[in-house]
Amino acid sequence: MRVSSIVSAIVALFAASGTSQLTKPPLQQNLDNLKQGFLDNLPAQGASRSGFQAGFIPAGCKTIIQREGYNPVDFQVINVKYNDNICYHKNSPVKLDDFIRVFGRVPVCTRQFVRHAVTGPNGGGAYNLGGDLLFYGGSMGNLNVYIHEAAHSLDARAYRDSKLSSSQK
After folding, report:
1. Residue 82: CA atoms inside 13 Å, Cβ hemisphere, count?
2. CA-to-CA separations, 50 to 53, 135, 158, 160, in angstroms, rounded
3. pLDDT by 10s per residue, the chain, length 169
């Protein structure tokens, strides 16, 4: 099976609207069985990074950071070569280079619909708010979670007229 077929099937499986109530039970309670397949078939992307001046923060990052009750001063904004912006909290449990390496495995055809990736220092979980993704605690470093949250952006932005998550199948 080709990687693109695998990715398409996974995106179709996990894409769900972040603003709608879920009415169907999950197909699988635990997605850990997918992790090795993702790692084996989604190559790491080369990335270089550069920082912005202290005090600069994109509005989308600032909104999600403040929504979570964090201080924007505790974040640095990094421009990553694969055209993604990451807002990285100084106390994030995953090293910046590790976050860049693993997040870079999300297929570019999906990642292109993510506006910003934000890391948080504690807790556990992730969500997508208008194309800005927040990862914190145990979700950090988990490619399954990165793909799942990026799929929400793919669903909302790439399939505006016929969302994948509206399927009755």
Report:
1. 22
2. 10, 21, 28, 33
3. 444 444 444 444 444 333 345 577 766 677 778 888 888 887 776 777 888 888 888 998 999 999 999 999 999 898 877 656 789 999 998 899 888 888 889 988 888 889 889 998 887 889 999 889 999 887 878 899 999 999 998 888 877 666 666 544 4
